[in-house]
Amino acid sequence: MAEGLVLSIDGMGGDHAPDIVVEGVDIVARRRSGVRFLVHGDAARLGALMDRYPDAKAVSEIVPAEKAIGMEMKASQALRQGKGSSLWNAVAAVENGQAHAVVSAGNTGAYMAIAMFRLRTMEGVHRPALAARWPHAKGGYTVILDVGANVEADGEQLVEFAIMGEAFQRAVSGKERPSVALLNVGAEEQKGHEEIRAAAQLIRDSGVDLDFRGFVEGDDISKGTVDVVVTDGFTGNIALKTGEGTARLVGQLLRESLTSGPLAQLGALIAYPALKKLRARMDPGTFNGALFLGLNGLVVKSHGSASGSGYAAAIGVAEKMARSHYREEIASKLARVSRAPAPAKVEDAN
Amino acid sequence: MAEGLVLSIDGMGGDHAPDIVVEGVDIVARRRSGVRFLVHGDAARLGALMDRYPDAKAVSEIVPAEKAIGMEMKASQALRQGKGSSLWNAVAAVENGQAHAVVSAGNTGAYMAIAMFRLRTMEGVHRPALAARWPHAKGGYTVILDVGANVEADGEQLVEFAIMGEAFQRAVSGKERPSVALLNVGAEEQKGHEEIRAAAQLIRDSGVDLDFRGFVEGDDISKGTVDVVVTDGFTGNIALKTGEGTARLVGQLLRESLTSGPLAQLGALIAYPALKKLRARMDPGTFNGALFLGLNGLVVKSHGSASGSGYAAAIGVAEKMARSHYREEIASKLARVSRAPAPAKVEDAN
After folding, report:
1. A193, A246, A258, A276: best mutation site toward chain B, by most B Cβ within 10 Å?
2. Domain that residue A154 falls in
């Protein structure tokens, strides 16, 4: 790996694989950033595609895999039967030190299960988390985690998520000191679940180096109130999907409005460049690439229905993470938290 | 109350009270639907406003209240010090049988606490819930509850929420048999928290008359997959606020795009009527009016920042609920659930 960055790609994962995968690799290849790719999957299909994308071909090595894991396969089944699949081999390339990070648009549950099984969690991490980005009103992206790796999280896990999410945000945005908050039903200290209040106390007591801002509410994700929003995987998954659903609904209503008559259509035609810019801003493709945090290896998940440019965005996340000091930062902060004294119990009478 | 519907109004609650409250009453009054209003609050200010809104004045009685509860007052403080306030008196009018329902845009926590204290929960209801509506792609509104009355809910409570939410949707939409589902991180049976899986089983075992569709995900709220989405108050609050935040963000980006240059502005001007229709559809004012379900009395919460037409929408919810058989329906279904045999425990060995 001395010759620069190598990324391991699951060529067969996703709704439109392998076509959009190779298209995404090609987009990145044309930037000439020196990244090389190991593309796992059906050698015949991938080879034929590469012939159509010479830039991708020039920086890729096709690694034949005998099978692919379907989008509907259960995680437990993928663990039993997945060996030799493009997804399995793509993850194994990171484990074996052949690549710096892996990217797949395939079956999320299978991907998480195989990545956890092969790469294991980092020391000091109880459970990995899936971190996604969401556009906000100030022009950047809020990192939100966990968006679905676990359905529950206790106070300690939320603290780990905070540390991992902050390092992720720094690596992808270049922001020196991202601010962090816990997602809650109100900003007041006494609000919410016990786990969340415990996590807030734990972060404050640990003395870990975080710009911690306490609690934020659901609408703060789009406002960009803080850079990193931390929550359990149940709440985070539902928040993210509710946001995605709403953005899709508004987009649909906008299209309906602007095709509702000749005047509306004319207006839309004239305003087309501006509307196109709006669309790009809210297009999940532009902020595609969720990171599976807390493993001994960089694991990036692309949306299953990503386009070629969306897939390129996910590769971009893998590239930025691989060039960052993300894992060293996490490791040192986690060590600090685990060394912190247990918080004193507050007692009524003394 | 023999002479028709009477609604009790907190004249002083909300960011723009009492002005928008009287404006909202006036909008409803001009429909001549025979509703009369008891408007509680500062008699001098309300009287002066009524002089400007003669339609409101003709159907309203001003009930002087010596004070108002501020938006920042804590619920516990409101319970101790709130007696004699416009909010307190507005709720008491329902308790005393002087009005069929109460509407306030005031402090949510104080409103819930006072309403629970004065009206008490219905027999068979463990905890009340706050139900809101959200526009969906099929043209109607999804009812979602609980959006913040409780931070947790066990299986039994979720079943009660399902029953109450279904009756609410029928009363406001006129839909004969609204479909119901539980909010989860996946549609598969084995997904999510134990409480949710228990609730799904409980609904199926109880034999209660509901069109129950199992689990839905966050994006189904905007898709309109089912008519009623049931969840705990923590998740529901965060989902609703995340959706609101996203809608606001897209609206802001759209405005920015359409004012970004002369061509964009021209296009927007030509498409203005279509854009205005879109705005009305996503304007929280048009679906304003959350219902605090499960109390011995109808309690409607308006957004604190509602406009006059938004407030009129909340009054419309109170009117529809008061003319419905909602409480009788809930009472009979709850009785059925509580009579249902406890679900048998599944045992491995026999």
Report:
1. A246
2. 123-293+325-350
pLDDT digits 0-9 by tens, A133-180: 999 999 899 999 999 888 888 888 999 999 999 999 999 999 999 999
User: Are B243 and A240 inside 8 Å of each other by CB?
Assistant: no
CB contacts, 8 Å: B136 with chain A:
249
Q: Are residues B146 and B220 in the same domain?
A: yes
As for how many domains chain A has, the answer is 2
Tell me what pLDDT residue B243 has: 92
Residues A169/A171/A177/A181 CA torsion (nearest 10 deg): 20
Q: Are residues A240 and A254 in the same domain?
A: yes
Taking CA atoms, what residue in B is nearest to A108? B186
CA closest to B137 among chain A residues: A249
Residue type, A215: F
Q: What is the CATH number of the domain that holds B110?
A: 3.40.718.10
CB contact under 8 A, B270 and A250: no
Q: Which of B289, B145, B139 is nearest to B223 (CA)?
A: B139
- Of A111-115, A184-188, B46-50, B80-84, the range with the lowest mean pLDDT is A184-188
* Yes or no, beta carbons of A267 and B274 under 8 Å apart: yes
In a domain, A320, yes or no: no
Query: Same domain, yes or no, for A106 and A142?
Result: no
CA distance B114 to B78: 8
Name the residue type at position B132.
Answer: A
**pLDDT at position A345, please?**
45
- What is the reported pLDDT for A71? 87
The per-residue pLDDT for A348 is 40
Q: Is the pLDDT of residue B346 over 70?
A: no
ipTM of the complex: 0.86
The DSSP code for B284 is G
Inter-chain CB proximity B219 and A248 less than 8 Å: yes
